[in-house]
Amino acid sequence: MSSRALKGMENGFRLQLEMFEDLVIPSGIVHHVSGMKSRTVRDDDIFVCTYPKSGTHWTWEILSMVVAGQPQYAKHWQNSAHLDSRTEEELDSLPSPRILFTHLPPRLLPREIWDRKCHVINVQRNPKDAVVSYFVQHMNQNWVDKSRDAAFTGTWAAYVDAHIKGNVPYDSVFNHSLCWNRFPQDHPDIPFLQAHFEDLKKDDVKEVKRLAEFINRPLPYKVYEQIADACGFSKLKHAHEHVKDQSFHNKWREGSSGYFRKGEAGDWKNWFTVEQSERFDRVYQEAFNRPYPY
């Protein structure tokens, strides 16, 4: 029987996928993930844990500014702090407090997080919007060089099917959300905050304040406003393209907008057919035992 990783490649992934334990991941990060549980962390590390395309960059940059105490962009791309793809030596070079991000489920993260009681932030997004954004990324990201195929070359219909079945990198958004929703019960002594992309869109200043207070770094309200403004979509996109060091910039197809596509909520309505949306809703309701909430 084919693994879910192989089935994903049959669906149209040109990015090489493998199974690590019960998780589908890109082959290129297996050597990082295989030793993840024994990695060393620091007491003041902050972990941003998201499903891909769920507000990771946004949240990471906000936290970086909160830690700095001012609306100043971090020098490097967020990818410099990607737990899943950076070596322990590379992450060791980052100054404390480190804001590290990951797309892994809790069971694969460093055990020291639980011992040291690090702050953990989970960001979630309307799953349909996350799937659309993930599809566009995979259709445009080279991963190797401009002469290679994109990460995914199949159809939108094939991608939706692969996603629902969990045959995509980091598995289905359903499985990812479920394990993070259980996190407070599984780890009741760990400082934990769950944020939502849609709440950031609705009132970014309020959410900046909530994040700052959670990591015990309260700031004057005016600074919250300044950080929210600096992390607005157009300004953050400009900073990532023209201000930041590009050392950790991934490869994209010519003409692609890169990580910053639209930054909107509700774009899924322009992609999902009625049949696909209804199927997605049914799978969600079976997994979460409640109607689709968006």
List keywords for this structure.
four-stranded parallel beta sheet; 14 helices; 10% strand
Kindly summarize this structure in a few lines.
With 294 residues, the chain is of the alpha/beta class.
Our Rg estimate from Cα atoms comes to 18 Å
The low-pLDDT segments are none
Any idea what the CATH superfamily is called?
Answer: P-loop containing nucleotide triphosphate hydrolases
Helix content: 40-55%
Separate helix tally: 14
The number of distinct β-strands equals: 6
CATH class: Alpha Beta
Mean pLDDT over the full residue set: 89
The major pleated sheet works out as: 4 strands, parallel
User: How many domains comprise the coordinates?
Assistant: 1
Please state the overall shape, judged from the principal axes of the Cα atoms: globular
